[in-house]
Amino acid sequence: MTYHANEKGYYGQFGGAFIPEMLYPNTEELRQNYIRIMEEPSFIKEFQALLKDYVGRPTPLYFANRLSEKYKTKIYLKREDLCHTGAHKVNNTIGQILMAKRLGKTRIIAETGAGQHGVATATVCALMGIECVVYMGEIDIARQAPNVARMKMLGAEVRSALSGSRTLKDATNEAIRDWINNPVNTHYIIGSVVGPHPYPDMVARFQSVISKEIQSQLLEKEGTSNPDYVVACVGGGSNAAGTYYHYLDNNDVGIIAVEAAGKGIHSGESAATSALGKVGIIHGSKTLLMQTQDGQITEPYSISAGLDYPGVGPMHAHLYTSGRGEFISVTDDEAMAAGLLVSQLEGIIPAIETSHAFAIFDHRKFEQDDIVVINLSGRGDKDLQTYIEYFKL
Ligand SMILES: *Cc1c(COP(=O)(O)O)cnc(C)c1O
Q1: Mutate to test the pocket of ligand 1, among 239, 379, 382 (most ligand atoms within 8 A of CB)
Q2: pTM
Q3: Beta carbons of 243 and 342 less than 8 angstroms apart
Q4: Does the N-terminal peptide bond of residue 314 adopt cis geometry, omega within 30 degrees of 0?
Q5: Which among 43, 175, 198, 236 has most CB atoms closer than 10 A?
Q6: Mind listing the pLDDT tens digit for each residue in 90-128?
């Protein structure tokens, strides 16, 4: 029994590649080459050098003393907020830009909702001197102006998606359309463990540097490489996949996933995909999906833009249905309170996505000697305006 993808990209019944025929040559080229390229010594060397000198890895594993005292358990924070650009997303974009270069691609496209993945993609395109087009819904362009400015400053072109709800899923549709029209010179950098095979597995492998580092850092600090629990927030699920990766098939380590319940799971304004989702297909992958009775995708809601996705990566759909992962839904209010608490107990302002993960301690008790590693996926600078309005600071 394994919780990793098989060679067809299935995690149990989830995953695969449900794509229009016109997209087949693109994903097939990637599928046939990604593992071979990732295992080339020259690729590994270049990837690791950039992670070290450009991203700033390894990120620290920090024992959160005051938080541990408050919740009477041992809490460690994996500090992905200290990565260049302020979150884990750059681990994946560095990996994929190197992949694109090896495949001879000269143009990059990406989709973005809040703009975080767009910024991480524009960053690595600037680094490599490669043309970059980022698709973004018209509504998101209006509400995420600072990130639009960042992408432009980094030299990317931001194209507005005008169809549908004019948000993330529409931007994704536009990006897929572009890729179909430009199959030879263009690589599509997907921003999470979603999309058709091989994306979920490839992105999980790039992000797995997180759990690899946790293993050696915890061994140094605690004399064991196994925590009792690894915890992460789940939007599409890339920071979670990276945090769990080397522990997936190790039953000594509990896996906890935290989803955004928005204004409450049953409020109609939520992004708690596992709790509310039914099996369906989104962006080329069979997974759990928030949908209406007749299969139309439901518009998700969360105060946190990064968790505001109606699906979840197939790895997580499998972790949920198999019972390997424990899934907890956290409301906006609970997340905001946890973000404020962590700021004042540890001097670290987390991204609102990450604040959801911190709220689990009010949902669930741990033993005094349990070691709980929380992936601190990103820093809160980008969310300051939301914190200001919420707390009337
Ligand atoms: C984008 C983002 C997330 C959600 O994306 P995943 O693919 O689920 O990791 C979580 N935290 C931060 C800080 C983000 O920027």
Answers
A1: 239
A2: 0.98
A3: no
A4: no
A5: 236
A6: 999 999 999 999 999 999 999 999 899 999 999 999 999
